[in-house]
């Protein structure tokens, strides 16, 4: 990676700008000139203070900080040649007497679009494929077993413009992007989760926001359609697709049981819980969200889901500011505008023991590789007993009453509230 007038240092295998350019976060996507909160804290604190702050922010895995791991030179070379961030970590589990470790390597890719939104659609899509391919190759070279891309990775996140021409990016489950990834899945013996804009040709060409699960043999294992559709500011996506109809499927692969909670579904605790009840060990959350709207929530919700449901969570968010040719409004009183704001990346992994990795860059294309022992899921279930102590019968009764038109909340009022003053 070439840098002009900047010194690059290596810290534990990670490239860091020792003297970063302090650009405005509105234009560069940086945080006070740094690539991530992790970089900012490390630069600003003494080593002892940074270690203690990291313990509080990132938790401890089996009593120790989450380990970094070294990846093959092939992956590092691709990272340097194509200028994407590459980070790798490892979640351990306790050694067991009756079970062998269940080690799996999982990858997350975040990326910006490659061509302006004014370019012909075919050129935009082809350019994204070209940009993502070397990152996919680096994942394969790193021995990744399961890989997930970001929400609607094949296109700009144009859904909130409310312009129907963007529907041209929609494709069948076995369409162009799936065929592109099937070849790589076979080549690297890798399961790939591909979130796309789906065109359901069987049902009147209905549009869905869908994740296609591609098996390590290049086969299509299945699909999941986004359960919850936002109607928040610019993100009013029901112009294009409505709530999905696939339930909460968990896909059993040779490497483990995985599920996909697409974007806005992360705000719904019962959505997370349903994937856990169906047996998920890893849940991916491919997303597209901007700083002004959601960044304070981003490091909390998925991590809480991993803790509450005893599974690993991979959170992916795209990067960059995507500017569209025509201005649009959101109905929130703000003047018309041509972009949604900055997609702040910050993809990361959370573990069921409350530990998590540092986040990826807020503005660069990136690949995160995480090695994990899936035995940790059951170990944490045994430790905390959340499933055993849950009161599902009470929740069922409450929800059954709540959905009825004549529902009355269970409120016990203080009798003194209704007494007249003497």
From TrEMBL:
Residues 9-22 have a biased composition (Basic and acidic residues). One of its GO terms (biological process) is beta-alanine biosynthetic process via 3-ureidopropionate. Its EC number is 3.5.1.6. Residues 104-374 form the CN hydrolase domain. The keyword Hydrolase applies. It comes from the Eukaryota. Residues 9-28 are annotated as: Disordered. Signal peptide: none annotated. One of its GO terms (molecular function) is beta-ureidopropionase activity. Gene3D superfamilies: Carbon-nitrogen hydrolase. InterPro entries: Aliph_Amidase/BUP (IPR050345), C-N_Hydrolase (IPR003010), C-N_Hydrolase_sf (IPR036526). It is an enzyme of class 3 (hydrolase). It catalyses: 3-(carbamoylamino)-2-methylpropanoate + H2O + 2 H(+) = (R)-3-amino-2-methylpropanoate + NH4(+) + CO2; 3-(carbamoylamino)propanoate + H2O + 2 H(+) = beta-alanine + NH4(+) + CO2. Belongs to the carbon-nitrogen hydrolase superfamily. BUP family. This is Beta-ureidopropionase. It comes from Saponaria officinalis (Common soapwort).
